[in-house]
């Protein structure tokens, strides 16, 4: 691909930083704020785009792992139909091309909706089972950490200094 | 004063009665689905705002209307805000005012009528900008909005330059004592306000001695999540269930500001005197722990050199609680406080990963770019939810 994606993103950044932003009058706060945020967004996208499919494949693997735990024997009360649909999506997840970002994202949506249904309904009117609670919290711990690393570039995370590089996080996936 | 378990608690509906929420809040949230179809929304130009204001004041019978010094105000991830000067034949000297107007969708969809009511009620109780006009349905302005008097002051000391979005991540250093004391005192005044005898007709209070104060909030934010969700997030769903099953009893509901934190108060320099408590749009009648827990959020605070966490960049957590108890007479129950920390983290996750991203995806906000930027902080709140629920469950296991 010529010109490559990295080159074009760097060109956009240079134009925004060196031409567009300085040309915006100081009293045009909305325009200045938006230009600076545009620079921030593009700089982060430039760091992420090569790994986006790999990142989302890891997200799907984590969700599949949670779904399998929800189907384990100690978690009772999942409706038969939901269990069957979970099994179906889990099976498909093992056969798809994980480099196909759109396909992976679609499967995350489908599986996520089923997991949500289980979390909200399983065992009711009784309380959340400890096994279900622990399974979702463990998943949440891992996935929220991955997302914090993925978006560390915004520096909105108050504990950004303790996060590893994206490449290290993906290597440990 | 609240406790996590109370056998004396009266039952008001089931924790799974999803419709048990304030009618006006429900109306605003459901109206958003209609507004959503009217997009995309484009930020108002200065000329458009000037035309809107001129039309408004002419419709009020003013003559010789002049709108000058129109300035878009900083921040405003939720509402479009403009400072302007109004002159007319009856007031040639002019008045400096602030217009706060709804885009089609925002990170927090709220009611300008409620906001006007509470600010009018709080006038003279704590410093607030005086409301001079409210168009809660957008009949005159074309979209809901309110106009207040301009308040002088700053949200951060002028010598401090480093800060994040909405003043987050700021430390007040030499200002901390003066501002911290007023921060606590004003919160105590808000919680001590006699809301039952105020004109808050757009508000509905939860019943005392029930779980309703907490459940109203869970229903509000889970309703928002269901309308706005972009991608399922298991921790958000888990939090909803946990919050329903563990709702505390609120014995005596108080007026809750609901966004009481750094960035939402103004003060004068060099005196440090508070000139305004801002952003009342999320206010409601609820549990006093909710405001405390909100102020204490990790994202709104900073750490001192000795490692102490400073609530909203002002004072250590323990001092904040003890000073608040002394000023308000309210007891702070640490288990209930943790419940509301979880509720607030859940609410922030819904705002960041739900409403904000949905508004941006629909192109219905004046700052879509800000909303998708803020969305990247959603995982910070998810991590908080996980940690806090684990802590709550561990505490429960120890008690048992």
UniProtKB/TrEMBL annotation, chain A:
It comes from the Bacteria. This is Uncharacterized protein. The lineage of its organism: Bacteria, Pseudomonadati, Pseudomonadota, Alphaproteobacteria, Sphingomonadales.
TrEMBL record, chain B:
Keywords: Transferase. The keyword Transferase applies. Residues 73-306 form the Aminoglycoside phosphotransferase domain. Gene3D superfamilies: 3.90.1200.10, Phosphorylase Kinase, domain 1. GO terms for molecular function: transferase activity. It comes from Sphingomonas chungangi. This is Phosphotransferase family protein. Pfam families: APH.
């Amino acid at each position: 691909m010529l010109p490559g994606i990295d080159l074009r993103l760097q060109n956009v950044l240079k134009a925004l930083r060196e031409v567009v932003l300085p040309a915006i009058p100081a009293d045009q706060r909305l325009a200045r704020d938006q230009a600076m945020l545009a620079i921030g967004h593009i700089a982060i996208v430039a760091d992420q785009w090569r790994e986006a499919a790999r990142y989302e494949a890891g997200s799907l693997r984590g969700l599949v792992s949670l779904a399998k735990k929800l189907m384990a024997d100690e978690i009772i009360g999942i409706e038969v139909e939901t269990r069957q649909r979970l099994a179906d999506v889990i099976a498909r997840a093992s056969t798809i091309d994980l480099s196909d970002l759109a396909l992976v994202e679609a499967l995350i949506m489908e599986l996520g909706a089923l997991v949500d249904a289980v979390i909200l309904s399983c065992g009711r009117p009784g309380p959340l089972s400890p096994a279900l609670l622990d399974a979702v919290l463990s998943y949440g711990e891992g996935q929220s950490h991955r997302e914090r690393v993925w978006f560390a570039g915004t520096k909105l995370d108050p504990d950004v200094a303790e996060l590893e590089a994206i490449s290290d996080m993906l290597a440990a996936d | 004063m609240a406790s996590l378990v109370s056998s004396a608690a009266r039952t008001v509906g089931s924790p799974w009665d999803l419709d048990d929420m304030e009618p006006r809040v429900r109306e605003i949230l459901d109206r958003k689905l209609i507004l959503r179809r009217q997009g995309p929304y484009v930020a108002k130009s200065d000329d458009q705002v000037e035309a809107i204001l001129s039309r408004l004041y002419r419709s009020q019978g003013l003559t010789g209307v002049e709108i000058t010094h129109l300035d878009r105000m900083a921040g405003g991830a939720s509402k479009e805000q403009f400072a302007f000067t109004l002159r007319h034949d009856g007031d040639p000297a002019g008045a400096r005012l602030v217009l706060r107007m709804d885009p089609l969708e925002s990170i927090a969809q709220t009611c300008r009528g409620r906001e006007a009511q509470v600010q009018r009620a709080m006038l003279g109780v704590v410093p607030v900008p005086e409301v001079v006009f409210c168009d809660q349905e957008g009949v005159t302005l074309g979209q809901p909005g309110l106009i207040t008097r301009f308040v002088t002051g700053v949200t951060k000391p002028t010598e401090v330059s480093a800060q994040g979005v909405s003043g987050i991540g700021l430390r007040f250093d030499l200002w901390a004592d003066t501002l911290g004391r007023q921060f606590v005192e004003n919160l105590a005044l808000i919680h001590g306000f006699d809301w039952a005898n105020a004109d808050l007709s757009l508000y509905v209070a939860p019943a005392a001695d029930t779980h309703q104060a907490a459940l109203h909030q869970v229903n509000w934010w889970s309703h928002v999540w269901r309308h706005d969700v972009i991608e399922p997030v298991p921790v958000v769903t888990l939090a909803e269930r946990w919050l329903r099953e563990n709702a505390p009893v609120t014995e005596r509901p108080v007026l809750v500001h609901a966004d009481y934190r750094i960035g939402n108060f103004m003060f004068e320099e060099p005196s440090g005197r508070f000139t305004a408590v801002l952003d009342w749009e999320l206010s409601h009648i609820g549990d006093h722990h909710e405001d405390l827990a909100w102020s204490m959020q990790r994202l709104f605070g900073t750490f001192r050199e000795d490692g102490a966490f400073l609530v909203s960049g002002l004072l250590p957590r323990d001092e904040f609680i003890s000073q608040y108890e002394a000023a308000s007479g309210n007891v702070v129950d640490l288990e209930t406080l943790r419940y509301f920390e979880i509720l607030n983290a859940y609410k922030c996750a819904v705002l960041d990963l739900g409403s904000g991203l949905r508004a941006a995806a629909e192109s219905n906000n004046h700052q879509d770019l800000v909303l998708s930027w803020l969305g990247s902080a959603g995982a910070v709140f998810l991590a908080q939810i996980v940690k806090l629920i684990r802590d709550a469950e561990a505490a429960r296991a120890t008690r048992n």
